[in-house]
Design a protein that fits this description.
Layout (H helix, E strand, L loop, with lengths): L1 E13 L2 E12 L2 E6 L8 E4 L3 E5 L1 E6 L15 H14 L3 H17 L2 E8 L4 H9 L2 E8 L7 H17 L5 E7 L7 H13 L4 E5 L3 H11 L3 H8 L6 E5 L5 H10 L2 E4 L1 H6 L7 H7 L2 E4 L12 H16 L7 H15 L16 E5 L11 H8 L5 E6 L2 E4 L9 H15 L2
Parallel strand pairs: 1-4, 1-5, 6-7, 7-8, 8-9, 10-11, 11-12, 12-13
Antiparallel strand pairs: 1-2, 2-3, 5-14, 14-15, 15-16
Helix pairs in contact: 2-3, 2-14, 11-12, 11-13, 12-13
The structure holds zinc ion.
């Protein structure tokens, strides 16, 4: 299908940032074929872009889609009480069907708020990947791996879940798979080494939670005599393409290691603040060259998967925390939420709105109070928009949402099934 977006204001890459330019965008198949005056090109469909803003789709670099079920059900708890006291007991009651609908709710929310790709960590084989495959979104999917030793039966079963999904859903070109060791406090060294062997065998990247809380770091010093980053580095994990979620509690040496090894840090500023874990050292990490992307974490701790909220909070919390107004700029935030996120997920030619790139595009309505007057659209995306302005979402040239209608997802059914599941789980 050839789609022409006519007379749209587009956020195009310029000098490492973005510039807003009035133009046409011509999409052919899954690719942006031309940006500029496309009046002479024949399209199957024309979208009137007058008064609209086009941007590369947002990339959510860390979430747990099924946990959208737990939205507004585990609040005002410190991280360890939240995880071990509240979330894990609820997870024990989840059926595969519950997880399917939770993941559906996540995909629905992400499409509605302009996310076109995400990195997921989940807890079962089949059901969650099935839901994501139906959404049309791009995703890198990892089964959360917990285990001790090379012969831990449940640990091995979790690795097999990863491989099952990889084999079953490999035919979906928008889905990729990663090894997802949960964290250093839910795995031991022998198990992590086994996970790395599997990652090498199947050429998979690694997705892990890292240095999220002070307790994780203190326990690591007690047990291993070094920081979590040093522990994994010494083990050789960072030879793999690694996305490390959180990276809140980092030493200067940790930052240096992450920069030198090219590890992607997926920062989840709202989740980190809400669970009392603190603020990552993002300005220091950026200065040192750590590649930083933005994640929402799950709706169990955020409580949304709306990237607009995290983009704004990411900018504001570091400005406030460092008492420096340009600690993180709107231009830097948008780049983290698009280009760097896509790189973190290993998506080629994605995350930038340019000729020859994959057509993952969102179109926002600028005739809304949050965009008016039409001053700086990049600032609007970071500081004043809230995601409700997103009208149309395209992934690989396929329209997933048009004028806020998502024809292939049954919204009412998703809400019904999620409410039904939570009534049972939380009773
Ligand atoms: Zn997480």
């Amino acid at each position: 299908m050839r789609i022409l977006i006519k007379d749209v204001t587009a956020l195009l890459p310029k000098d490492g940032g973005f510039e807003a330019k009035k133009c046409d965008i011509f999409v052919s198949g899954d690719t942006v074929e031309k940006i500029g005056d496309c009046g002479e090109l024949k399209a199957d469909k024309v979208i009137n872009g007058e008064g609209k803003l086009a941007s590369a789709g947002l990339v959510n670099a860390h979430t747990h889609s099924y946990m959208s079920l737990f939205r507004n059900s585990a609040d005002d708890l410190m991280f360890h009480d939240w995880l071990f006291g509240r979330i894990m007991p609820m997870e024990d009651k989840l059926t595969k069907e519950d997880m399917y609908w939770g993941a559906m709710l996540a995909c629905l929310e992400m499409i509605k708020t302009g996310t076109t790709a995400f990195l997921d960590m989940n807890i079962c084989r089949g059901a969650i990947t099935e839901a994501i495959s139906k959404s049309g979104l791009k995703a890198v999917i990892s089964r959360g791996l917990v285990g001790n030793g090379r012969n831990d039966e449940s640990g091995l079963e979790r690795i097999n879940d990863t491989l099952y999904d990889y084999r079953t859903y490999n035919k979906f070109p928008r889905l990729k798979f990663a090894m997802g060791p949960h964290a250093i406090y839910t795995t031991d060294r022998a198990y992590l080494e086994l996970v790395m062997e599997k990652a090498a065998e199947y050429e998979m990247p690694i997705n892990i939670h890292l240095s999220e809380s002070v307790k994780e770091v203190e326990d690591c010093y007690k047990e291993h005599g070094c920081s979590p980053v040093e522990y994994l580095d010494e083990m050789g994990m960072f030879k793999f393409h690694t996305v490390a979620a959180h990276c809140v509690q980092l030493s200067d040496n940790d930052i240096k290691i992450l920069a030198e090894r090219g590890v992607y840090a997926a920062s989840n500023p709202i989740s980190n603040a809400k669970l009392g874990n603190g603020f990552a050292r993002i300005p220091d990490m950026m200065k040192a060259g750590v590649k930083t992307a933005i994640g929402t974490d799950s709706a169990g701790s955020n409580n949304t998967l709306n990237m607009f909220s995290d983009m704004m909070f990411m900018a504001l919390c570091h400005k406030g925390n460092t008492r420096t107004a340009d600690a993180v700029t709107a231009q830097e935030i948008l780049k983290m939420a698009t280009q760097t996120g896509a790189e973190a997920l290993g998506l080629e030619n994605t995350g930038v709105l340019k000729e020859g790139a994959r057509a993952d595009i969102i179109i926002m309505d600028m005739n809304t109070p949050s965009f008016q007057p039409l001053n700086d659209p990049t600032a609007a995306m970071c500081y004043s928009a809230n995601g409700s302005e997103v009208e149309t979402v395209m992934v690989d040239g396929e329209l997933l949402m048009e004028n806020r209608v998502i024809p292939h997802l049954d919204e009412e059914r998703i809400y019904f099934e999620c409410n039904k599941a939570m009534k049972r789980i939380d009773s």
